[in-house]
Amino acid sequence: MSFALHGFAVAPGIAIGHAQLVSHARLEVAQYQLREREIEAELIRFDMALTTVRQELVLLKGEAEASPGAAAELSAFVDLQSMFLADPLLTDAPREMIRKRRCNAEWALVQQMELLVAQFNEMEDAYLRERKQDIVQVVERVLKVLLGKSRKITRRKGQGDDELIIVAHDLSPADTIQFKSLKIGGFATDLGGATSHTAIVARSLAIPAVVGLHNARPLLRDNDLLIIDGTRGVLIVDPDARVLEEYRLRKSELELERNKLKRLKTSRAATLDHQNIELLANIELPQDIEKVREVDAAGIGLFRTEFLFMNRSQLPGEDEQFETYRSVVKALPGKPVTIRTLDTGADKQTRAMRGQERIGPNPALGLRAIRYCLAEPQLFLVQLRAILRASHYGKIKLLIPMLAHAHEIEQSLVMIERAKEQLRAGKAKFDEGIEVGGMIEIPAAALALGPFLKHLDFLSIGTNDLIQYTLAIDRTDESVAHLYDPLHPAVLRLVAQTIERGARAGVPVTVCGEMAGDADMTRLLLGMGLQQFSMHPAQLLEVKQQIMRCDISRLQPKVARLLKHDDAARVREQLALLDD
Ligand code: PEP
Ligand code: MG
Question: What is the mean predicted confidence (pLDDT) over 508-530?
Fold first, then answer.
């Protein structure tokens, strides 16, 4: 039966393909009672699943050892999971439960997992406490075998060239980043907001996505035929022939439009009144550089380095980080690369990091980004030294996230100086004059810019967080996603004010939040005086097209009028008039 679900449109485009349900151990497992004579078979089924996963882990370890770079890291991770899998607490205890309570193996395993997770939560040592994640992961592996699902995302017979559409209750940014190496057509989740990092990664992959669907995961079955309309925020299940045809047509039209945009790659990003605008790219991983080259961005305006720390159980060391940063800057000779120091915490959790469980009840307001780095100076210094060393090989700029207080700016600068001294002592080469900038993403920073303008070389407005903190809504929470409004007058004034004060003080200002890549906002930002935009490479040519159609001298007075309104509805009316 055909039906549609509505959520939030987070990454535009259309995907047509088959559902691949991604499991979430605790949500999926049903409980049922066994008859006495079924118990032996259930125990064998459980043991066979354990054996399968043990073999899987052996294979994985072999693969890890054969691929340099990831070897030590992945091996350690596999060893840990194998160790848990050999522990009687995960093997004998569920067996006992199957026998005594006559329950199914999946249920017994999840009950035991919950018990162990609760015990780990009580542990004093933060590192040990975090190992509960490894237990959950190994249990999920066993569950997938028990439930008859392959762990790997693979194309099935009969699916032809259709795309795979990931359907999940929730995906973390760490889950989503793994899609970079898989060919995924689109994804749909029950949870999530428009600028959650999961959505941001989807946009960076340029794959259509809809989040906040509430009930997609329980309503869908594996292999269902789906259409994702990532522009309207709709998921259509089992579409009829007419709807399918319409969407196929629309999809090919979109591809044509996208191909036409490619012609703009070599055009100058200049307005009709001859003002040059700098269009930079946001990246999460070094492999994104290929996409940056495809659109010939002027450089990297935001390298979100926290993604290098995800999906691993040990932190990347100084040398590994240095190699990564150097590879990025060397891949873009002559172009600036803005490397943002770790913005971990909130929805970007990293398993390997100490103290991540200290983020407290309000993660977005907790020990995040620079707050975390200043609380963990050794970890911060490792990253700073790695970035500084890479600065010898090209134009690197350092960007500090989530600054609000003058003392945070001062402490960050002290730490940078300390890292420089350490490098000087070791006779390592680096750019002595490296530029240091700050993210403006907390209203307090935008309202009290003095110390930022005095101490820093450039500013970068993070509209995603600026909106979250100005409007007091969690950007990952779909229940308040309707209140996430980039056009709220308070937000616009903070952005405009920052651009204007930066210009007056001669401090360059970039916008690197999602607003910069939204072609509907281009005129507004140009009218505010913005000259540097940083966005996902996939959005760059569309924004360039807008820029080439604009006359800033005509936009400025209109935008000044728009900014006077206190009512978001009036702002929207005025925004529409900017197109004339
Ligand atoms: C922002 O907040 O706008 C930003 C660019 O940083 P992130 O999305 O990584 O928090
Ligand atoms: Mg931010």
Answer: 97
Residues enclosing ligand 1, CB less than 6 A? 200, 302, 304, 343, 441, 462-465, 512-513
Compute, in angstroms, the gap from residue 205 CA to the centroid of ligand 2: 19
C-alpha 462 – ligand 1 centre gap (Å): 5
Question: Which of residues 365 and 178 earns the better pLDDT score?
Answer: 365
221 contacts 21 by C-beta, under 8 angstroms: yes
DSSP letter, residue 233 = T
Q: Which residues contact 162 (CB under 8 A, 6 or more apart)?
A: 16, 17, 18, 185
pLDDT top residue among 514 and 479: 514
For the chain, which domains are there? 1-22+150-242 (3.50.30.10), 24-147 (1.10.274.10), 270-550 (3.20.20.60)
Per-residue pLDDT, 154: 46
Which ligand 1 atom minimizes the distance to the CA of 468? 2
Ligand nearest to the backbone CA of 463: 1
DSSP string, 3-35: EEEE-EEEE-SEEEEEEEEPP-HHHH----BPP
Distance 506 CA to ligand 1 centre (A): 24
Question: Beta 435-440 vs 509-511: how paired, if at all?
Answer: unpaired
The residue whose CA is least distant from atom 8 of ligand 1 is 464
Other CB atoms within 10 A of residue 121 CB: 10
99's CB contacts (< 8 A; 6+ apart) are 39, 43
373 included as an active-site residue:
no
State the CB neighbour count (10 A cutoff) for residue 409. Answer: 21
Q: Which DSSP symbol is given to 78?
A: H
pLDDT of 399 strictly over 90? yes
Percent above pLDDT 70 for the chain: 91
For residue 416, report the distance from its CA to the centre of ligand 1, in Å.
Answer: 22
Contacts of 204 (CB under 8 A, 6+ apart): 282, 283, 284, 288, 536, 537, 538
pLDDT-derived band at 132 (thresholds 50, 70, 90) equals: confident
List all residues 6 or more positions away from 443 whose beta carbon is below 8 Å from its beta carbon: 466, 469, 470, 494
Q: Which of 103, 373, 512, 550 is catalytic?
A: 512
Nearest-Å Rg of the Cα atoms of the chain is 25
The pLDDT of residue 150 is: 42
Ligand 1 atom having least distance to the Cα of 343: 9
- The catalytic residue among 197, 373, 536, 550 is 197
Torsion of CA 214, 200, 326, 400, to 10 degrees: -100
| 488 in active site | no
With a cut of 60, say whether residue 25 has pLDDT above it.
no
Mutate to test the pocket of ligand 1, among 303, 343, 348 (most ligand atoms within 8 A of CB): 343
The model's pTM:
0.79
437, 487 contact by CB (below 8 A): no
